[in-house]
Design goal:
Elements: E1 9-13, H1 17-28, E2 32-36, H2 40-50, E3 53-54, H3 58-64, E4 67-70, H4 77-84, E5 93-96, H5 103-109, E6 114-120, E7 129-135, H6 141-151, E8 155-159, H7 165-173, H8 175-192, H9 197-218, H10 222-228, H11 235-246, H12 248-270
Parallel strand pairs: 1-2, 1-4, 2-3, 4-5, 5-6, 7-8
Antiparallel strand pairs: 6-7
Helix pairs in contact: 7-12, 8-9
This protein binds NADP nicotinamide-adenine-dinucleotide phosphate.
Length: 271
């Protein structure tokens, strides 16, 4: 059983893009890490950089860990499940980042497994990500709370029903991509007005980060804050008028709906 605040023995299966971020951030928290990746060179390199123990197999990772993060591509799941059958999987807690692989699929392949499914976004790299979290049927309330505690150094953890995971993928998983596109557009708009690109980019990125943090700090509805910066006959209302006329809100809502449909399609292929 995991204890709140206790340093744990953590395993990572697959140290690619996402697995490496977990190794980096959770290693910094003082947890004892052990990982395996089929790419021997990649495993060696990341182990040297983030100072974790290299396992010789996934079964070894499970053996020595209390909690195991699974960070391989979804299409690898069937062969991974075969490997895990030879390990004491039922006595460990698994945290899966595999997009489109439901907890039920783990439970079918590995009866009795305790698995939590998460959907992180890229900002976990700096500890400011959003992590949607849904539990499988064998996970207790206490284990869910402990997993949340463990993941907190990576960002904000939001519990959701597993049926909402595709919505989380569309809103926050893909969300970083929308925000980068918007930042790029606003910075280029600054260049049109004669600002230096890198200066405009810094200003826009900080405006995004600052506005978002203000909203999170104050709470409430974004429209209230929008009204505060919109003086009668001023500059902001002119810009907002063009956005309204162009249907920017509708376009963004359509974009999220399109990502949601695609998440569902990909999930049905993965299953
Ligand atoms: N990237 C994102 O922004 C993001 C966001 C949310 C969720 N995810 C999820 O995160 C997962 C990992 O994505 P990623 O981008 O980190 O993938 P990745 O860079 O391909 O990393 C996966 C690593 O695991 C290795 N691997 C494959 N089979 C293995 C096995 N049986 N045992 C141990 N290692 C194995 C892979 O080697 P090979 O290349 O040789 O297969 C690769 O080095 C995916 O399921 C994805 O859905 C990703």
């Amino acid at each position: 059983m995991l204890e709140k605040g206790k340093k744990m023995r953590l395993g990572i299966i697959g140290v690619g893009n996402i697995g490496e971020i977990f190794a980096e951030r959770l290693g910094k928290e003082g947890h004892e890490l052990c990982a395996y990746d089929v790419r021997a060179e990649r495993l060696k390199e990341t182990a040297r950089t983030h100072r974790f123990k290299q396992a010789k197999s996934n079964a070894e990772v499970v053996h020595v860990s209390e909690v195991v993060v699974v960070a391989v591509k979804p299409q690898t799941f069937p062969s991974l499940a075969e490997e895990l059958k030879k390990s004491p999987f039922a006595e460990r807690l698994f945290i899966s980042v595999l997009a489109g692989i439901p907890t039920g699929k783990y439970e079918e392949a590995l009866p009795g497994i305790k698995v939590i499914r998460i959907m992180p976004n890229l900002a976990i790299k700096i500890g400011k990500g959003v992590i949607g979290l849904a539990c499988g049927k064998n996970v207790s309330e206490e284990e869910e709370a402990q997993a949340e505690e463990l993941l907190r150094p990576l960002g904000m953890v939001e519990r959701v029903a597993e049926s909402k995971m595709d919505a989380v993928t569309a809103v926050s998983g893909s969300g970083a991509g929308y925000v980068f596109a918007i930042i790029e557009a606003l910075a280029e708009a600054g260049v049109r007005l004669g600002l230096d690109y890198s200066q405009a980019l810094r200003m826009v990125a900080q405006t995004m980060a600052g506005s978002a943090e203000l909203l999170l700090a104050i709470g409430g509805h974004p429209a209230e804050l929008k009204n505060r910066v919109t003086s009668p006959g001023g500059t902001t209302i002119e810009g907002l008028f063009v956005m309204e006329k162009g249907g920017v809100k509708g376009i963004l809502m359509d974009a999220v709906a399109a990502a949601y449909r695609r998440a569902k399609e990909l999930a049905s292929v993965a299953r």
